[in-house]
Automatic annotation (TrEMBL):
The chain crosses the membrane at residues 12-33, 63-85, 106-124, 272-290, 302-319, 331-349. It holds the Pfam family LptF_LptG. Its main location: membrane. One of its GO terms (biological process) is lipopolysaccharide transport. The keyword Cell membrane applies. Signal peptide: none annotated. InterPro entries: LptG (IPR030923), LptG/LptF_permease (IPR005495). Component of the lipopolysaccharide transport and assembly complex. The LptBFG transporter is composed of two ATP-binding proteins (LptB) and two transmembrane proteins (LptF and LptG). This is Lipopolysaccharide export system permease protein.
Length: 353
């Protein structure tokens, strides 16, 4: 049986890796074409390529379930088209045993993907976000987007970017008193000195009086704020770019503050269940290889895999978003489509047995 596991597993493993490589290449090319309009003297093509390159580990972990589905269809389909699967069945090897041989490399890749999503992609994607925001420059319009809005000590604060060392970049502080805007301060950078004391660097201030607006510039200013550097850093990151431990930490913090942590819980459970998503799709792939796609061409199998993968991913996305606007917990919203996929796959396998 070891030879069977090695032979079937190698076929599936190589096919999954090939599909993942193709999907990553297509994603890189399409994203580059979409983002190339941002290229200018400050945001160069080299910077764009650097940002897209840093996003590859996260994309790899994200594409592994669909890659496992299409790769299994290709790998087992190639064996079925040459009647090797028929010979295995004639030799008395049960269908579930062939499926087990195909699931082993997929499970190994899924675990690798989970480790990448925890230890590699968060660091790379967070660096990509920082490079992207700092190179694009400061948005001078009032409608600022892309960063994080916070309320601290009665003031509204916008932070464009932050790094792991606790430095904040492109900060705008709207100083208000009795619901009246008193001043607007913008700083290029902020560093935390103590728990409640920050130092602002390169500040431009606009102070509003009854008769005029006073504009001033300072190299450094002290800023009293109870904001914590760790949570400020997490608040400026997209949920998908955080590791499992960061998602759990920040969602717990939001709950303690009485704030909505749905986005972060959704991202957490989406990453946790990716290995199960891969296995569920592989079971569906195995059931179709020995069923309706038994005599299909390679192109037909790939096309079917893409359709099944798109249907699964869209259902997963819709159920996840539905959980954010309803009383359905994110855990249920993510696990329900995976459970249905498992049930359908096992039912089809039982019919082919």
């Amino acid at each position: 049986m070891r030879k069977l596991d090695r032979y079937v597993g190698q076929s599936v493993f190589l096919a999954v890796c090939l599909v993942a490589f193709v999907l990553l290449g297509l994603d890189f090319a399409i994203t580059f074409i979409e983002e190339v309009k941002k290229v200018n003297e400050q945001y160069t093509a080299a910077t764009l390529i650097q940002v897209l390159g840093l996003q590859i580990p996260g994309k790899l972990a994200e594409y592994l379930p669909v890659s496992s589905l299409i790769g299994t269809l290709i790998g087992l389909g190639a064996l079925a088209s040459t009647s090797e699967v028929t010979v295995m069945r004639a030799a008395g090897i049960p269908l579930w045993r062939i499926g087990y041989s195909a699931c082993k490399p997929v499970l190994a890749l899924a675990i690798v993907g989970l480790l990448v999503a925890e230890y590699v992609s968060p660091i790379a994607e967070q660096k990509a976000n920082l490079v992207d925001k700092l190179q694009v420059g400061v948005n001078n319009d009032f409608a600022i987007t892309g960063g994080s809005w916070l309320k601290a000590n009665g003031d509204y604060v916008y932070i464009d970017a932050a790094d792991r060392d606790g430095n904040l970049y492109n900060i705008t502080i709207y100083d208000r008193e009795n619901d009246q805007l008193q001043a607007i301060r913008t700083a290029k950078r902020a560093t935390q000195e103590t728990d409640n004391l920050w130092t602002l660097h390169d500040i431009s201030s606009s102070t509003f009086t009854e008769s005029q607006v006073v504009i001033s510039h300072d190299k450094t200013l002290e800023w009293q704020s109870s904001l914590k550097a760790d949570f400020l850093y997490l608040s400026t990151q997209k949920p998908d770019s955080l590791s499992l431990s960061q998602l759990y930490q920040y969602s717990s913090f939001l709950k303690e503050q009485g704030l909505n942590a749905g986005e972060y819980e959704l991202a957490f459970w989406s990453k946790v269940f990716r290995p199960l998503s891969s296995l569920a799709l592989v079971i569906v792939a195995i059931s179709t290889i020995f069923g309706p796609l038994r005599s299909s061409t390679m192109g037909g199998r790939i096309f079917s895999g893409v359709l099944i993968g798109l249907a699964f991913q869209n259902t997963l996305y819709i159920m996840g978003r539905l959980s954010l606007v309803s009383s359905l917990p994110p855990l249920v919203g993510i696990s329900l489509p995976i459970l249905v996929c498992f049930v359908v796959g096992l039912y089809l396998l039982k019919r082919r047995h």
